[in-house]
Amino acid sequence: xxxxxxxxxxxxxxxxxxxxxxxxxxxxxxxxxxxxxxxxxxxxxxxxxxxxxxxxxxxxxxxxxxxxxxxxxxxxxxxxxxxxxxxxxxxxxxxxxxxxxxxxxxxxxxxxxxxxxxxxxxxxxxxxxxxxxxxxxxxxxxxxxxxxxxxxxxxxxxxxxxxxxxxxxxxxxxxxxxxxxxxxxxxxxxxxxxxxxxxxxxxxxxxxxxxxxxxxxxxxxxxxxxxxxxxxxxxxxxxxxxxxxxxxxxxxxxxxxxxxxxxxxxxxxxxxxxxxxxxxxxxxxxxxxxxxxxxxxxxxxxxxxxxxxxxxxxxxxxxxxxxxxxxxxxxxxxxxxxxxxxxxxxxxxxxxxxxxxxxxxxxxxxxxxxxxxxxxxxxxxxxxxxxxxxxxxxxxxxxxxxxxxxxxxxxxxxxxxxxxxxx
Length: 423
What we know:
By secondary structure, this protein is of the alpha+beta class. It is built from nine helices and 20 strands. The chain has two domains: about 5-20 and about 155-415, no CATH class; about 40-145, SH3 type barrels, CATH 2.30.30. The protein has helices spanning about 5, 135-145, 155-160, 165-170, 240-245, 265-270, 300-320, 325-330, 385-395; strands spanning about 10-15, 40-45, 50-55, 60-65, 70-75, 80-85, 90, 95-105, 115-120, 120-125, 130-135, 175-180, 185-190, 195-200, 210-215, 230, 260, 280, 330-335, 360-365. The longest helix is centred in the C-terminal third of the chain and has 21 residues, at about 300-320. It is globular. About 35% of the residues are buried.
């Protein structure tokens, strides 16, 4: 029996977790009606300005004082505090966007922490993480036109019309794929509030926009027990390519809608042994260790809450997968984190090679434990190592994708001979 055959009908599950901060904005629901501005800005030299915040761009903060005809330009590092009246989109160094009103965090011990408040939910960010601020009206206009000029765009602007990506290569190799996402394709109640009940399959869509908020009364997340939802399209890579998102069509008429399913469907497919060869599973941004639930979680707040939320999610879903026929028939689970973050020391660069991200392989073909502990490989891996490995396992035709051509595959994490070499 060939190596390729021994991997079939094996499947790959990516459970995406986050060790840091990432990208795409929540849906914008506030009014776009203009109003008189009474934004306030405090500078580190003690000055206090009132007027209208225009934007932050390339390190320059543009502010129009109430007494002036034109905006003034202020070095962003000299800004001490902001209080806004209207909503803004705030883009972080990681590419992540948050929407809401901006406030100083009075209880924070760090003088440069800001809070972004959206419908009662608060996200705290550090001033040095903020690279762009735009009024929400301007950002929505940019969204409708498909791009934003500060290096970030919504899915419609970020869409790539290329076939040089993994799921298209898998399709050409005769392999199936599916994306299971938490908090998508859900029904609404009579008041227009989202519930945690999936829509009928005929009403599923390709989820190209992010959304977050509070469930309708009586609805709770199955994993963390909260009433909060938070789907981020940024963790759903297939939606960024024309040939796997159906041309940015967000209606049920999109022929690729069936490739995307609410996470609840995953358990049904698992029980029916009808999962795909390659399955990408994304928890919401609370269960992926990204964002602490409003009010904390099990007595914890901040990073401790984030980690506990993710651990609890994994402790519930991984055993179900491992008990399935698909897993027992030589399947593999890869727990995949996507970026590192700062260690909290001055001058720390989360992107240098002193920082690493986690990746855990679970399989009956995984490397044996060493001295009673899970094997930790000394080989240098990148996310391109995953791509190279998947191309090897499924024997995709064509070249290795992008930097997968240069990366080590993950064979050191498996028993010898388990990962075939690409012809």
